[in-house]
Amino acid sequence: MLSLITFLPLAGGVLILLLPKTSHALMKNVALLASGAAFLLSLVLTARFEIGAGMQFQELYRWIPGIVVNYHLGVDGLSLPLVVLTTLLSLLSLVYSWRIDLRLKEYLFLFLLLETGMLGVFLALDFFLFYIFWEVTLVPMFFLIAIWGGPRKEYAAIKFFLYTLVGSLAMLLAILLLYFNSEPRTFSVLELIRQQPLADAPLLAALAFWGFFLSFAVKVPMWPFHTWLPDAHVEAPTAGSVILAGILLKMGTYGFVRFSLPLLPETFKQYAVIVAVLALLGIVYGALVAMAQTDLKKLVAYSSVNHMGFVMLGVAAAAAAVGEPQRAQAATTALNGAVFEMVAHGIITGALFLIVGVIYDYRAHTRGVDEFGGLGARLPVYTGVSTMAMLASLGLPGLMGFVAEFLIFVGSFGIFPYLTALALSGLIFNAAMFLWTIQRIFLGPFNERWAHLSDLDGREKLSLVPLAALMLIFGLYPRPLLDVINAAMVVLSGAVR
Amino acid sequence: MPPATADLWSIAPELWLTGLGLLVLLVDLFSGPGRKTAVGAVAAGGLLLTLIPIAAMLGWAPRTAFFGSYAVDGFAVFFKILTVVATALVVLAAMDGLRTRFEGEFYALLVFMALGLVLMAAASDLILLALAIEFVSLTSYVLAGWLKANPKSNEAGIKYFLFGAASSAVMFFGFSIVYGLAGTTNLYDIAARLRGAAAPALYLGVALMLAGLGFKISMVPFHQWTPDVYEGAPTPVAAYLSVGSKAAGFAALLRVLLVAIDPTRVDWALLLALLAAATMTLGNLLALPQRNIKRLLAYSSISHAGFLLIGVAAFRGAFGTPGLLVYLFGYTFTQLGAFFVAVLVGAQLRSDEIADYAGLARRAPVSAFLMALFMLSLTGLPPTAVFVGKFYVLAAAVETGLLWLAVLAVVNTVVALYYYAGVIRAMYVLPPVSETPIPEPAALQVALGITGLGTLIIGLYPQPIIDLVHNARLLLQL
Description:
Strand content of chain A: under 5%
Shape of chain B: globular
Radius of gyration of chain A: 21 Å
Largest sheet of chain B: 2 strands, antiparallel
Shape of chain A: globular
Number of strands of chain A: 2
Order of helices and strands of chain B: HHHEEHHHHHHHHHHHHHHHHH
Radius of gyration of chain B: 21 Å
Oligomer: heterodimer
């Protein structure tokens, strides 16, 4: 089941490579079919998922017995929401990419390869396998930016590639440190968590922790490793930005929760304050810099730095509470919030980048926030969806972002009261920034330059409306999602107590 | 005392290669101009047949033949396989490019060089080793200067000869010091008799030997010939030098050091760790500004020598020597593939400049795709062959406590990405100068396909290679 979900997109991609170059419609349909099937299967997976039953649907095969590497997949309450998010956003991005015809074959192949890589990252339970999937996501993203990107695409693409490769290789060393200190030697994540191989070697544990940290922090991105993000986002094609913000960034926070926390709990606790301070800097800095942007895409990019800071604050708070049973409740709440925010940010920011794409790619061909004005009266549907996504992003109660941020603040306040209080300022800046943006684009006198703009067409609605609906549904009734996450987080914070 | 029959059986592949070389010369004599492809086909086919006697040797217990001068062990078998496969691929790749009336001799020389490489990897006697190295060197000087009308090729041949002769002389001086200390040329006897030798003289001997072997594997500071020779030599020859003689050089280095020189007497592991650091860093930094694909691959091959040396320096762990072999195997396929694309482009566009690769993705999609794969593999991204090798040598460094070397290797990998991505950028991002498709000749396509598949399959399922490598235990003691 999990292998099928993971490799269906790639199979579609390989099939597309074999099709003749001119049959555009056929290639698009194959891509849609592969990605759609993966999405449907992930829904089936959700339906059959048993809340609170730990790691499920495991697949374990011997792969490279010479160095004890297994092909091991599994899904739990942490990875399930991210898997569904991945298949959903990939499908919607493909729907949105319908009008791409520049080098379509390569585009679709890379896109589907990327989907397989991302799914693999969230499902792999063997470090060797995980590392391969992790690296596999780099290459298609590099090409997507470098070929279909904006004016400074080459610079942005290589910057993205170099930054993330530094991180990945540091992680590889950390993985090797764990491997060589385990007895019997293993790359299995579950077995390593059970063994705690570096528990008695503080120096090596610190090295391994910072190795993982570098890799995940670049990916999240945490301040000060975030500088690749605005470049990559601004230059990437719309669908690339959606995937980048919606899913690739989550790989970093997922890594912290899945690996750093349970594998090196004591070490993470030791450095949790540093991580929390960096998260706080990201929150405040991201919001303030976003406010200063006039490029809508850059604005959304910096708001991602802000939101991912919230996630990291929650994770760091949970890490700081390791080994203190009286704070376990707060830690679980913070972790729930962090994981919920991952999903919420994926949906909201994915929608926001699609919204930017709608106006930039096919209509106004500009992203200058100040160049619009009064669009609200002319493009009602577009304005409605955009306003909703922006309000969700600033944390309006009743929408998805609020639930996530509320949980993070409740949880981390019990652990880092002062830092959390400071982080609240980021929330205010964020709200101010988005409200000001709504005002500048949709309200005020109408700019006659845009008289010819049309509202959303069918395909754009098809890719945006589901996301808007999800924001509202999980904003009003977060319980189904929260139950799934909570079950896994209770297990996690129980394991590191 | 005549050699036993069993000894003759144990050099069946070598005898076969000798016969094949002579046969190729004969076929060349009787095939008219313009029909030299047949000669290449005989060479390639004969080389593949060599794999049969080699495969039969896989299960043999390690021993020595010819009075201890020739090792018959899994290690030697591993290098026999590597050499024969690489030579066959180079022959295939050369078949479309070299349309001269000396084409047949070219194949014969390649086969003879393969023989020399195989001898180098198995020699367990200093005199035999010296002879094998000279045999390889002489054939490769001729091959490097093959394009008589091309001044750059002449320069490559002469330069290679001068550098090679000097470093061989230094190495033989090192051999003579070791002989003087031990009173024997047999590596196993040396190991036993060096226990009481004076340390300073031993250090000098090891250092001088390293000069010669370092030249073959293009180790810093004996690397300067590499870019000039690779650039001037015919591209298939450059490919062969960067793979074949490098592999054999590593085989000889490993055998001499591990068998004969006690690391507790002469701390060559630390020395090699430092040399590995210098080699990969310098090679990488010099590769950054290159604009010519052959020079780029030359400098990158220097840096790969540095990575391979990690495997030698970390010989104490379970990943060191196997890491070196796994790396070499994957690197052989990937590096050959990259050079084969250079052969194709060089032959069709008459240029080796990376700028002329612009738009290759449109003009030769399959070759461009494979080249991108090779570049990513050389960087060390999974799931490709060199990734498995890099994984192994990094593991070896971590295992033996050489964490600083592992960190340096990681930094170097990131630097390397920059110039490898430059080639990908040219092929996929830059607009093509013309839309004319580039024809992709059949034999070359076969060679490219094999290297591409090899790169991917080793990356995805390295277990057979790991088995082969674990079978390649070095015969350490008699």
